[in-house]
## 1
Amino acid sequence: MKSMSKKIIVSVLFLLMFISCGDDNSSGDKITYWSSNNSYEIQFADFITKKWNIQSDINVRFQPVPEGQSSEEVILAAVVGETTPDVYSNMWQGDVEVYAQAGVLVPLDTLDGFMEFLRERCDSSVIEEITSLDGHVYQIPWKINPIMLYYNQNIIDTLNIEGVPGTYSQYTDAARRFKKDKDGDGYVDQWFGYAEVKVTWWQRFFDFYPLYLAASGGGSLVKDRKAAFNNEAAVNVFRFLRNLYANNYFAKERLSARQDVFLSGVIATRFTGPWEIARAEQFKPEGFKYNFSQIPVPDNHTGPVYTYGDPKNIVIFKSCKYPEKAWQFLRMMIDEENDLKLLEFSNQLPRRKNISENPLYSDYFAKNPLMKKFAQQSEYVKGTDASPVLKEVFDLISQQYEACVVYGTKTPEQAINDAAEAVNLLFIE
Amino acid sequence: MKLKQKIVPYLLISPYILHFSLFVAFPVVFSIVLTFHKWNIIAPMEYTGFSNYVRLFKDAVFLKSLGNTLIFLVIHIPLQIIVALVLAQILNQNIKFRGFFRAAFFLPVIVSGVVVTILWEQLYGFDTGLLNRMLVSVGMNKVGWLTDPNVAMSSIALMATWKNVGLYIILFLVGLQTVPTQYYEAADMEGANRWQKFFKITLPMINPTIFMVVILSTIGGFSLFIEPYVMTGGGPLNSTISAVLYIYKQGFFYYHMGYSATLGLFFALIILLVVVIQKRFVERDV
């Protein structure tokens, strides 16, 4: 009996020793790569790492970013705990500056052939946008999901308007025609649009920010350590949205907890990205027609219509033992052919110039005509400004957005001015 | 032998000392140190003197969050005590299905706060919520339970009362059952009515329970977090942002760890002060 117990104890200890000697992120001649944890990108990451590992002396081992409240939190925890992967491919552009200033990212412009590759892939405005405040480039622009006007074609066809509303007055006019109290209880229950009314900072990616970029021709929120949005474009956006809420053309109530309000016809439009296509195709009712168009602009707007691109970029952490090799892997991962694979696997656009005219992608866009609209829009997208306090900037704008746009307690001029003053205080040490 | 006698007590209390040092003393000392620093977790700490304390008194949102917490307490504590005491009185009688009702009232206490909050968010919905449908069906106007800045905190207090009242019913039931029946019998002989018995016998006799309930619901009220975090995010117009939610946002949203620690320390001192005051006055006067 005693010898049996001893055997069990020895076996358990041996097992524990075996487990504790297992692979970790930093051991062995491997590059660890964390991808996004959505199933499409996991498939892509699996495909690309297998392709690389066939021909390379240093293997890449991929895993989806561990589960957490958000991938941003997981990455922060990894940085603090010094358990970062070598390569991470789902980095929100607005977070890069914080990590760059903390010194945990590899300055990619110091790697052999990086800048040549970047100039070939992106135009100068993108390079300028992703260059950090210290003049280095710490991120590879990889993929974007431009925010556009998602509209119910069936509804637009019934409003007796000329085409899809593209300006503030056209949009407001269409909204007036559509607003309805269907059940006759004295309360509007059919709105032209909907945006989350919560003050959460990133909700402004789906209302204020794309509209601001459209109105300002891709303007900045912060520049030279001060607010750069105290201008007519921002005031006009607040005024436009405020008018929509004041007239009940947009719902003040949270509609996200019920059946999809767009597919059920409760609302006619939303400002959103290409991920809606897969959802609509899966859940749309019979006969439901939808499409995408550019973000509405002020009536006197001229020039191209910009929008927010929601870029997710790739970084190499300084914990990487083989940054040159990691760069070689990434160079292969985001070449033209593999960008096509990304498109096919995930329906997310690679951030590369002239993608809608590139013959390599023409078959894909022929099969996915709605994605072609996003590809055409991708020539006029902007990410975020390089700033370590970007979340605070969006939050301060959000506070004023709620006060002015949703509740009408401030004028647009006053709200934008207050937001700009609060942002300027962030930069005073 | 003597040495063993000296060492053994220390060995026996060492697990607690270790636990206390790691999980209480160290965090408290570290957070006090943090209040004099700027730290975003990633970069090294930067000494900033008393700037976090100066900022605290100029921070309009923090002051508003303190006001909101106070509003919550003013609504929540009396409501909680009155509802719990009334229900406990009823459940202390020989009524039918008493066991069932006791269990039913306690059920929300053991349900996850997030689940309760999501459920009430549906009830409070402006257009589709059950409460507004009921109001409209009797010819009344809809209420912006969570969208009207003047109403939102009261809505949260109502929900929190529903969620927690079961616990206080149990506490009051225990208190009521400790009141000797002879007092009531003597009062009956003296011709006291129901109210006189309640105010002259029951209330004074359950004084310690009332004090405990006041303390518990005050501390619970001060730690208001899940409800505004899930339901409103602190809005509309910061009308439901509680002090704890604001401290959390500063710490784990913006990673202003130094400032968040300063707010936390200041808030802990407020709670301490309130509890001391309650202990002096409530315990004596109730």
## 2
Amino acid sequence: MADIQLRDLTKRYTDDVLAVDGIDLRIHDGEFLVLVGPSGCGKSTTLRTIAGLEDATDGTIEIGDSVVNDVSPKNREIAMVFQNYALYPHMTAAENMSFGMRSVSDFSAEEIERRVADAAETLGIEELLERKPKELSGGERQRVAIGRALVREPQVFLLDEPLSNLDAKLRVQMRAELLKLHRQLETTTVYVTHDQTEAMTLGDRVAVLNDGQLQQVASPQELYDFPENRFVAEFIGEPAMNVLPVELRATGHGLTAAHEGFTVELPGTTDRAALGADDRTVSFGVRPEDIALASSLPDGAATFTAEVTVTEPLGEQLLLHCRVGSAEIQVKVEPRSQVAVGESVTLGFDRERLHLFAADTGETLYHSARPKADPNGRAEQSHEPASSEGLAPEAEPTG
Amino acid sequence: MATQTDTSTTTTTETLRPTRWLPEDLWVHAALVGSIFLMAMPLLLAMIMSTQTTSEVYEVTNLGIGSQGLANYWTALTEYNFATYLFNSAAMSLVIVVGKVSLSLLAALALVYYELPYERGIFMFILLTLLLPVPVRIVPLFQLLADLGWTNTLLALTGPYIASATAVFLLRQHFMSIPASLVETARLDGVGPLRFLFRVLIPMSRGMIAGVCVITYIYAWNQFLWPLVAVTDKSSQVVQVGIRYIQGSAQAGLTRWGLIMAAAIIALLPPLLVLVALHRPLLKTFAIQQK
């Protein structure tokens, strides 16, 4: 068990290619931290640098209490699981799991046998031990690969997109098993994925990376509710948050965001300066699930009209692509709503879930809900049901 | 047989075509048969001549099995020392195969799995040696061997062939097709490079190594010029040069072609056997892909 502390971690491949750009991150003992971001954002490089497969160009990596920059990978007490499983094709599952231990001669034969048997039992792969990788299914191979990591009894697990090669159903199943395993072992785990759903479901905390820089580290719900910038807002959530340019206007009791297709009051605002916005034009963000048909809104809520261009029945919800002025927005509505393509619909926002981002930097200027920090650094929604203009509870985001 | 099945399947699938009595790919087959015949011709002639007497060989129209039967083969093996030559050739080829493949494995391991300074330059330099094959270096090489006192030894025969750019290249390409995560896993586990080579890379590359061995073996077996220069002692000579010796022993002013052809067939058999036994890995070797 160990903490991991990254200080100003930088990895530069050539003068032009900066893969990781000054990351400061503390991963707590026993935590399941997910590194997520688009392709090429530096998440895998960060993981490989922690593993020691890449040297850091700058900055330090601490595992436990010691700086490990110059410690060889095998002495870092880590175990890594790769996307392609990295099983040796000519060895059986048991041989694959024990090969590393047999190679270093620190372990007795009984010890190796015991650990392999324990890991196999934990993962439920006892009957697969004598099979070779090509006789195993994808899920079974991944279990063996995880088993190989378990037998090392490491301080830290590093998982590099371990579920990406599995089909969708198996991925969901393995996700649950990974969580169960983590709860059982409580080993510090760093998990890399490009899949934001995986990140949200697995992580105690999720670190979002883009262009080698850390965008935000927070619990999944906090990332979803209170993104610190436009990138995080658009990256987390499926489908992505609608972001539209709006003009800020001061009215008698606060600010109003005006778009060519709609105007919406921003609760709890007094003037632009209080938001830190010195420009009239900002980016307005609202998630598809925080827009609803007027019919499901309480009476008196502000509404606007939009033209439906595409409908996508998702089963549990109906996704509408709508044209508002010159902009395109996506809206999630009740699954069996009677909406046809080409029709005009009346929509309204959940005023508790509006976001404003600076037009130039993308920094968050405003959330209509207020984060409340708890001792674990997690945030909760501040709004009580008392705010009567809110949507009906079933339209609340589920994360 | 094959043409019959061809016609039947094409009739069922393409019922619109009226003329079915000739297979559609008749010309392809004719061209294949023709080119195979052309390629096999020298071999067929050699086999026929190897059974003929010298005078029968000189009757150009005589293309039947000759009167000698297998007597020429026996003569070559006994009177002309071919048993010794075969043994020498086998020893030379074996040493070259083992030496070349071992060295190339180590070189490819270093090139693929280690970060060497100027790695690309080193690889280019290795490839550059392809421009300088043994025949080009024959004079300085001979001088070197003479200075070392290696003349007429197995070392002289095999030494210049141990380092091979071709084998390094083939193995490097193959190693590059093995996922990097395998070696990374090994590094994380603290598996040493040689253990990784013997326990992981070689078992995973068996087919490729067998293919490289076949190529190397046939190449080594067919060496002529270098053994001719490096070995002067007949008892240390190899089979390809041995054939040349027979040419020297003309009978009544006539070259004994029957005997030479028998010797050539004898020289051809060992690599043929190896090729037949290992043709599968050889085919794989030439279908290498780089991921």
